[in-house]
Amino acid sequence: MYDIISDVHGYAKLLKKLLAGLGYSQKGGSFSHPEKKAVFVGDFINRGPHIRETLRIIRGMVDDGNAYAVLGNHEINAITYHLKNEKGVHLIPRLNKNSLSLIKTLQQFQPYSEEWRSYRKWLRTLPLFLELDGIRIVHACWMDKSIKIIREELNEAKSIKKSIFKGIYTDPESELGKSILQTTRGIDLKLPNDLRIRDNHGIVKRSFRMKWWDVPVGKTFRELSFE
C-alpha cells in the first residue's frame, strides 16, 4: 500500500504533520510505516520556508527504503540551472521564468553549497516514472510513447547523466528531451492567435496546461484546462 504525496515544495512542517497523520513514525531521523511506503511525486523544492529539511526528509526515507520518489519539473529546473556549455556559459538564463522560481531554494542553500551539490547529484538518481503493483506514477503526464522513449533511452540507468539534461535545451527537438519535459510538465494547449486568457493572478496567457487524460472533442477551453 502506498501514500501518494505530491508537490511538497519546501513545506517541511506540513510534510511532517501529514506523515504523522498517515501513521508514519520518526526513528533515527527517518520516517517509516510498518505496512506502507510513501511515494513523493516530484516538486520537493522551491516556494516553502524549509526546503533543506524537506529534501533531508524525502531523501532519508528513499535511501532507507521507506519511500519512492520521482522527479518533477522543479527538480529538472534545479539540475539544469547549474549546467554549463563547453564554453563555461550557463545553459539557462539567470533571469528567465524557471530560474526565478529557484530563488528561495538557492537562498536557503547559499551557505551550504556542497550540500546542495550533493542533493543535485542525488536528484539525478531518481526516476522519471514508476510502475508499482498496478499503478503508474509520474509528476505530470503519462503518455505511453514518451514513457517508452525514456525507458529505452535511459535503460534503467542508476543515474541520469548531465548530458541528458543538457540535451533538453541544446537539442529541444530531440524525442528524449521532449518526452522528459512532457512527463514532468504536462501538455500546454496553445490558443488561436486571436484569443487570450487570464489566469487567477490576472496574467494574460497564450496557452494553458490541459487535462491530457481527457477527450478534447466537444470541450470548451475552460473544460480542458487543468489550471
Structure description:
The chain has 227 residues and is an alpha/beta fold. It is built from 10 helices and 11 strands. Strands 1-4-5 form a 3-stranded parallel β-sheet. Strands 2-3 form a two-stranded antiparallel sheet. Strands 6-7 form a two-stranded antiparallel ribbon. The radius of gyration is 18 Å and the shape is globular. The model has no long low-confidence stretch (mean pLDDT 92).
What is Rg?
18 Å
Largest sheet: 3 strands, parallel
Task: Quote the beta fraction.
Answer: 15-25%
Number of strands: 11
Helix-strand makeup class: alpha/beta
> What is the straight-line distance between the termini?
29 Å
Order of helices and strands: EHEEEHEHHHHEEHHHEEEEH
Mean pLDDT across the residues is 92
Query: What's the helical proportion of residues?
Result: 25-40%
Q: Which outline best applies?
A: globular
- What is the tally of helical segments? 10
Strand line-up of the largest beta sheet: 1-4-5
Uncertain ranges = none
